[in-house]
């Protein structure tokens, strides 16, 4: 009897997709925050 390999949802493929989604979500949060921080630091005059 041949044993077929099935991908389980908790396998590495699913994990990489989840981590990719988490990284994208983190990026979507981090980019506006970084832009806001840059705008505030420029307005305060840290760069001059």
List the helices and strands and how they pair.
Elements: H1 12-44
Task: Describe this protein's structure.
Keywords: Membrane, Transmembrane, Transmembrane helix. The structure is a single chain. With 48 residues, the protein is an all-alpha fold. 69% of the residues lie in helices and 0% in strands. The radius of gyration is 21 Å and the shape is rod-shaped.
Summarize the structure.
By secondary structure, this protein is mainly alpha-helical.
- Per DSSP, what share of the residues sits in E-state strands of 2 or more residues? under 5%
Give the biggest sheet: none
Count of distinct strands: 0
Structural class, please? mainly alpha
Low-confidence stretches: none
Kindly provide the radius of gyration, computed on alpha-carbon positions and rounded to a whole number of angstroms: 21 Å
Number of helices: 1
Averaged pLDDT, please?
79
Distance between the termini: 74 Å
SSE topology string: H
Quaternary status: single chain
Overall geometry comes to rod-shaped
The helical percent reads 55-70%
Keywords: Membrane, Transmembrane, Transmembrane helix
């Amino acid at each position: 009897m041949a044993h077929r390999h099935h991908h389980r949802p908790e396998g590495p493929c699913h994990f990489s997709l989840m981590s990719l989604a988490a990284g994208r979500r983190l990026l979507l949060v981090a980019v506006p925050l970084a832009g806001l921080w840059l705008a505030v630091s420029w307005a305060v005059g840290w760069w001059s």
